[in-house]
Design goal:
Elements lengths: L1 E8 L3 H10 L6 E6 L20 E8 L1 H15 L7 E7 L5
Antiparallel strand pairs: 1-3, 1-4, 2-3
Length: 97
């Protein structure tokens, strides 16, 4: 099993959720208001007057074979806008209940 942590501009929420649904990922945990600043391009997402946009984050635990298709689809979505951004990170899951 793997965990996929996805941080993205809140405007992408429906598309990211659709990617998970298409890949038969039912369960996930999410955070609606995540602040941050990308390491490559784009504007800060601080939820302030000067920088009003926010990010959202999702953590999903998936079977190993689902990781590549999900990341591939997230890369395509990320390519639609340089300024909004999506980042995804994968970790091994050793145990769970």
């Amino acid at each position: 099993m793997k965990s996929i942590f996805i941080s993205f501009d809140q405007a992408y929420y429906e598309q990211v959720q659709q990617i998970l649904t298409i890949n038969h990922v039912r369960g996930f945990s999410g955070w609606e208001s995540v602040i941050g600043r990308g390491s490559k391009t784009g504007d800060p997402h601080y939820g302030t007057h000067a920088w009003p946009s926010l990010n959202t984050a999702i953590l999903a635990i998936v079977e190993d074979e689902k990781v590549k298709p999900i990341l591939d689809e997230l890369r395509v979505l990320d390519g639609t806008s340089e300024r909004m951004g999506i980042r995804a990170f994968v970790w091994n899951i050793e145990d769970g209940m």
